[in-house]
Write a structure and sequence with these properties.
8% strand; Nucleotidyltransferase, domain 5; single chain; mainly alpha; 2 domains; 147 residues
Length: 147
């Protein structure tokens, strides 16, 4: 499915929950993603929807049911595995995983729907390191938000 979406021009970010993390504070990418999403909630960068909705109750329940751990050998943070959660009688946090992936993997993507003319937008984009289509490129352009 992902390969087909790529062929259609959809940008796909591959993600491996247990994959290697460049940030030495975290055991794996899944842990980093969960912590980044939590940090964005604390900083009000993500405003959670009203709690009275059943889907939101499920999300909050899953976000609060997964335990954090710290490895005594190297003090890196990690999250409880899904097998460990099952042994406690807690279901897989599928909705919470999707939520954290949506907000924790990459910075927000900005899209410009401005017409591609010669008013200096190309030069501004170049100075900021953003991709900008050439005159003969009809695709919209994407840029990552500054870190």
């Amino acid at each position: 499915m992902c390969d087909q979406m790529r062929r259609l021009g959809v940008l796909i970010t591959e993600f491996n929950f247990g994959g290697h993390c460049e940030d030495p504070r975290y055991r794996n990418e899944g842990t980093r993603m969960w912590y980044q999403a939590a940090q964005k909630i604390r900083e009000n960068m993500i405003v959670c929807p009203p709690y009275h909705q059943p889907e939101v109750k499920r999300l909050f329940s899953q976000l609060s049911s997964r335990r954090q751990k710290s490895d005594d050998l190297d003090s890196r943070l990690s999250m409880e595995s899904k097998a460990e959660m099952r042994s406690r009688g807690v279901a897989s946090p599928d909705v919470a995983d999707a939520f954290c992936m949506a907000f924790g993997i990459e910075e927000a993507i900005q899209r410009s729907y401005m017409p591609f003319d010669d008013t200096g937008r190309q030069e501004i984009a170049r100075k900021r390191g953003w991709d900008y289509p050439s005159d003969n490129d009809s695709r919209f352009w994407l840029s990552r938000a500054p870190r």
